[in-house]
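Section 5.1 Outputs to date
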Amino acid sequence: MNALLTISGFIFPLITFPYVSRVLGPAPNGKIAFAASVIGYFSLLAAMGIPSYGVRKIAEVRDDQEKLNKTLTELVVINTLFTLLSYLLLLLLVLIVPDFRKDATLIAITSIQIIFTTFGVDWFYQGIEQYDYITARNLAFKVIAVILMFILVHNPQDYIIYAGITVLGNVGSNFLNMIKLRDYAHFNFHISLNLKPHLKPIVTLFLYSAMTVIYTNLDQVMLGFMTSNKEVGYYSATIKIENILTSLITSLGAVMLPRITYYLNHNGIQKFNELIRKSFNFVLLISIPLAIFFFLEADQVIFVLAGKGYERAGIILQCLIPAIIFVGLSSVTAWQMLIPLKMEKWVLVGSIVGALLDAGINLAIIPIIGGVGAALSTVIAECSVFVTHCIVLRKRLRNAIDWQNICKLMIGNIFALIVLGLLYMVHFPILFSSGLTLSLKSSFINCVCVGIVYFGVYGITLLILKEQLVLEILGNIKQRFK
């Protein structure tokens, strides 16, 4: 459910973008994008790390109603104070900066998402593991937003309406959270609130979030300064693909955080180790074959998604795609080990190491090889983040990695590659003709055919080898059908 929720955040913009880009035109679209980016930074300040910290803290106390009410109240008070600070700074910015004052209405409408995010307390529902509810109401509001867009947005002057619809689709469902909250907990302002113990971890997680935002945007910023707009365009096309894949791979992390925290606080160390092993298996089960598939089919995928003129993006994608494996692994070490173990400072240290390496390598090789250099530096930076986590967690990782199961995954990928290689040797045309010389339809069929062969052989091999997670997933599916 969380994978569906996360991916929907990327899929819905992909659905709406072709229509909106044609109806509104570049100038209104640029205004909306600018306002959204500005509000994104103020949302980060208003949240102050609570979306991450709150999940862990609520999971710790969810069995004690009194503590649950107290913790919820304390975190909402802190969140409200930083929301007020965020709005105060935003108001000053609008009053002082002419460009902001000129678009004050647009910024005001876009900023509504800050309020809804604060009082929607999504992190509370994640902490008590209400993922079905979160996903269902979020998807419902996204569908409503898409319908309203087609009904109400017809010309460039409707960009304010579109901005409001975007806010509705993103956070409108949080209004339901406020109403439903009383079914699980209530605010208690009559007891002595203790805010101080929460401040250090939330500030640490805020700095981590801020560092992550900076360093994920760093490549495109440096490319823009050091190369051409075309090179940035090629790189941004590959980043969109990487973002969707990493969202799928890391979707398990957010779901596991409250459960792992619960076990750690109830002496369930054996269950903790079992879940960590399962998380590593899940990440490797999905990320390695996805990385191999997109490496092999990079030109075809770019041709299907971006069309002609983006040929160079193919090699950039091939250089960038290994990063999804390291992002997946570091999501386990960060969100399922360091944060539940209250070692969040090392999550921040890892992101600083990655950011410094990314910036340094970018400076050295972007002037020489452009977007390819940015992709390689991203892979090295993500690897360094994971290595930093591993050094800190080296003792615990001994019991958290199932090497026998990892060997089965590697055998499955190797065997699938061998089958593809044999098909290549017999010149199976639909699988291996160049995407640059094919139509959109043929390129799409090519990707589908290679995917069916590769993932089909991979899955069958894992079934033959009795890979634990695959058998468990199939067992769950059978049980649901029964």
